Fold this protein.
Amino acid sequence: MKYLESMANALHVEYNTFIEVSKQIGILNNNGFPKKKYIDEGYFDSDGNIADYQALKWLYSEKLKNFLG
């Protein structure tokens, strides 16, 4: 999950806050691990590491837009 930490740093957001937001918008489960759907779709590998960084940035953008209305 070190890659999520680097994403949080790039956004200038505290890591724990980033993880909580990721849970709220439905990308991570309650344990802080990527949901199976996003592993199956290729955003993450089976270890929870980012598999496609550009696609994941797009996913976060879309999820946040929908979450914020």
The radius of gyration is 11 Å. The mean pLDDT is 90. The CA atoms of residues 43 and 59 lie 9 Å apart.
